[in-house]
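Appendix C: a fully annotated inverse folding record. The material below is reproduced so that readers can follow the format used throughout the book. The structure is listed first as tokens, followed by the designed sequence.
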């Protein structure tokens, strides 16, 4: 069996590596030789992993399948002509007005349609607005191939549930949802994914699978927004959100009465929400119903929650300004150090990182603005370093956006000596507020009120 995986990113690479390790399967990754990502072609063909940070098993798996000769990467789209299955894993970002940008998806569908053979299985794995498979991908594929979906070729939407740091694990051990244009398409897709999935594979239709994908992430986004809003309330009332959260989550799960379980799991608030999916999927859900729904709905809860989470970098800036003012320092005279640029701890993934809007809000109005990240080597337009001493030296304020392990064991006495002004803005609940204050730091933390009498009781719990 020959499989083509289009897009060598955080989904395409681990997916291709898993399929290439299945007996009787060969995989060709398709990647454009773009300025940003073209280097991955030669890198992967050398058996190297282009994804940094902690990613258990991925580098070893890539090396193995390249050595076996079952995985290679190319920019030649002629490989679609021989493929038995083609999986699409291209970027589907949204514009500033929350409209999805489908240029890559449209172009890839056109290229596939012009080359694919009858009987091929086309699987869309990219996150899309509900209705995209039927109303955008299907017409392009049919028009350019002169074939009919469900008759001459199989079309499915099957979304990934990957998380940076658990790419291989999630692809194998999270249930797979396969939405088919027809029931027969769904069954054909399920047969394919069972080759790498070690748990349940569910079949449904395309629209249900598309809604399920964006709903999963919108649900998480809404819950994070709730936690962030409660955190801001705690700051105002002089309480500690982490103490509040501990008490809320103490409500027990009672297995003796499952029908009446009062279980709670309040999320952790923080400096903002990043990643490829959460910042956009609520908007994709709204876009789908706005464009393809039969009735109009405002989707108030999910859109307002998204705005709460988008506000958190602005809230971090507010905490920075308050702390500088407390020390009689004007922002234009300050060196601000942002700790962490990746959106997730111990990774190099910068997609939609909340550090970016914070940096842009401060850019040009500080004496010096610098970001430290141990995993991100460079970022266009960003003053970033992997030298922690350089970042901290003579700093007036550190703002923690990412909970990298390198930031969890600071010696506060040494940190104070290195900085010009000892100010900590903790966006990830790393420091004990009372301990920081005892060491002479001005401290602000997301959800930690400055008038609280018990700041230290649960900050690290």
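Designed amino acids, in order:
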């Amino acid at each position: 069996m020959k499989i083509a995986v289009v897009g060598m990113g955080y989904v395409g690479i681990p997916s291709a590596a898993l399929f290439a390790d299945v007996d009787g399967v060969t995989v060709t990754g398709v990647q454009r030789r773009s300025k940003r990502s073209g280097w991955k072609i030669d890198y992967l063909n050398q058996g190297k992993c282009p994804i940094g940070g902690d990613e258990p098993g991925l580098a070893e798996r890539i090396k193995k399948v390249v050595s076996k000769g079952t995985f290679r990467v190319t920019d030649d789209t002629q490989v679609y002509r021989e493929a038995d299955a083609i999986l699409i894993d291209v970027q589907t970002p949204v514009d500033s007005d929350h409209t999805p940008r489908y240029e890559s998806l449209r172009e890839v569908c056109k290229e596939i349609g012009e080359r694919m053979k009858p009987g091929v299985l086309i699987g869309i794995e990219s996150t899309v607005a509900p209705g995209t498979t039927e109303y955008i991908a299907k017409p392009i594929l049919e028009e350019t191939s002169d074939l009919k979906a469900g008759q001459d070729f199989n079309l499915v939407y099957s979304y990934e549930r990957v998380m940076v740091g658990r790419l291989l694990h999630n692809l194998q051990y999270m249930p797979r949802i396969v939405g088919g244009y027809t029931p027969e398409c769904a069954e054909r897709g399920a047969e394919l994914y069972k080759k790498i999935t070690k748990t349940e594979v569910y079949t449904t239709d395309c629209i249900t699978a598309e809604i399920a994908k964006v709903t999963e992430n919108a649900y998480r986004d809404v819950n994070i927004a709730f936690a962030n809003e409660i955190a801001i309330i705690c700051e105002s009332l002089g309480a500690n959100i982490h103490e509040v959260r501990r008490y809320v989550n103490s409500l027990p799960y009672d297995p003796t009465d499952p029908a009446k379980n009062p279980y709670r799991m309040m999320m952790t608030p923080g400096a903002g929400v990043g990643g490829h999916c959460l910042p956009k999927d609520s908007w994709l859900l709204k876009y789908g119903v706005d464009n393809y729904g039969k009735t109009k709905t405002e989707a108030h809860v999910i859109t307002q929650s998204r705005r709460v989470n988008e506000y958190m970098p602005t809230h971090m800036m507010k905490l920075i300004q308050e702390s500088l003012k407390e020390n009689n320092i004007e922002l234009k005279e300050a060196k601000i150090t942002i700790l962490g640029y990746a959106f997730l701890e111990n990774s190099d993934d910068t997609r939609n990182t909340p550090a970016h809007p914070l940096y842009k809000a401060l850019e040009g109005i500080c004496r010096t603005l610098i970001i430290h990240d141990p995993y991100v080597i460079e970022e266009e337009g960003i003053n970033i370093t992997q030298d922690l001493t350089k970042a901290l030296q003579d700093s007036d304020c550190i703002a923690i956006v990412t909970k990298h392990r390198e930031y969890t064991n600071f010696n506060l006495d040494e940190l104070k000596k290195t900085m010009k002004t000892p100010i900590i803005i903790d966006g990830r609940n790393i420091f004990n507020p009372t301990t920081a204050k005892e060491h002479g730091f001005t401290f602000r933390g997301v959800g930690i009120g400055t008038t609280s009498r018990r700041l230290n009781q649960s900050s690290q719990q």
